[in-house]
From TrEMBL:
Residues 61-345 form the Autotransporter domain. It comes from Bradyrhizobium pachyrhizi. NCBIfam families: autotrans_barl (TIGR01414). This is Autotransporter domain-containing protein. GO terms for cellular component: outer membrane.
Length: 345
């Protein structure tokens, strides 16, 4: 173990050249970044959340229809961190993570205008969890886990030509446990997070059902992680917020199924993301004050996402998508898979 058991983040090593920070400095430093990554995975984008909704405008009496939807999502990723872990720069420790969640919602308001535009608003809940394996700079490892409970609301406006603005507000409660692999009691704490997303897209349609849809998105999160303590120190968390932007374009095609009103849409979407904040701090008490440690998510990354959405019956649609994300500085990557069901009645 490290040399912080008597009072905080750590003490100087024998020679004084390398701080002998205990392994929990890496373990706890990864908690805020994991919660931010999970919150963004639930927000996602319109077509990942509910599938292709362009076909809604062709239904009989769409304004009177009720719409419910649900999906499962899984994410697996790696935050490479600094080569020296918490001894290095803002990137902090190396950790891998797995998210799994169930999300379901329903439209509570729908209105179709005479000009062909329409509005729909609804609410959703999500239950999920995460597990992260964190590696300290000396090779020791520990686990962060949390259960998460989310309530959210959305409003989507579709223009007459199919352009859209999609807005989301969501709140999440986290129940966090952090366990080192050296026998000390686990650290337990809770957190409350708020998030908002605004996304827009404008499709350009071509013969044969082909389309190109440029998109832009802005996502903000703020998470308050409660102060905690372990056997050696008081732990505080600060600056747990994120401001991320995305620009991309969806390339796809829509087909009629067996010459029926039912449709099938397949698409691929490259995107460029940038995180302007995403530099949370975990602070350990010590004899000289609180010592900060970081696990920054800031910077640019690319994403490639592919999806399919089809009407199984006149009232039921299935949709699925998969994505790969990678930071341009080599600082991390992730894979995700999602599948959902939308029902009109």
């Amino acid at each position: 173990g490290g040399g912080g058991d008597g009072g905080g983040g750590g003490a100087d090593g024998g020679g004084g050249d390398i701080p002998d920070y205990r392994e929990e400095t890496s373990l706890y430093a990864a908690i805020p970044s994991m919660t931010l990554l999970y919150g963004r995975s639930l927000l996602d984008t319109l077509h990942e959340r509910v599938g292709e909704e362009e076909d809604e405008r062709f239904r009989a009496n769409p304004e009177n229809a009720r719409v419910g939807w649900g999906r499962v999502l899984g994410v697996n990723g790696v935050h490479q961190g600094d080569s020296f872990g918490v001894l290095g720069g803002e990137a902090g420790p190396h950790f891998s993570y797995d998210f799994l969640a169930l999300q379901a919602g329903m439209d509570v308001y729908r209105h179709d205008s005479l000009d062909g535009s329409r509005d729909q608003a609804g609410a959703y809940f999500a239950i999920g969890g995460a597990r992260g394996r964190v590696t300290h700079f000396d090779g020791s490892q520990g686990d962060n886990t949390f259960a998460a409970y989310t309530l959210g609301g959305y409003w989507t406006h579709f223009g007459p030509t199919g352009w859209y603005i999609d807005s989301i507000l969501q709140g999440t409660f986290y129940d966090i446990t952090s366990s080192a692999n050296r026998g000390i009691p686990a650290l337990k704490t809770g957190a409350q997070g708020g998030a908002a997303s605004v996304e827009g897209g404008y499709p350009f349609k071509f013969a044969g059902g082909f389309f190109i849809e440029p998109q832009a998105q802005l996502v903000y999160q703020n998470i308050n992680i409660n102060d905690a303590s372990d056997i050696a120190a008081q732990i505080r968390f600060a600056d747990v917020d994120s401001l991320a932007t995305r620009i991309g374009a969806r390339f796809g095609r829509t087909w009629a199924i067996d010459d029926s009103p039912r449709t099938l849409t397949a698409w691929i979407r490259p995107s460029l993301w940038n995180e302007f904040l995403g530099n949370p701090k975990t602070l350990f008490s010590s004899d000289t004050g609180f010592v900060p440690f970081q696990a920054s998510l800031g910077g640019l990354w690319g994403e490639i996402n592919a999806g399919i959405s089809g009407q199984v019956t006149s009232t039921t649609s299935l949709y699925a998508n998969a994505s790969y994300q990678s930071r341009f500085d080599g600082g991390g990557f992730s894979y995700s898979g999602k599948a959902g069901l939308r029902v009109n009645w």
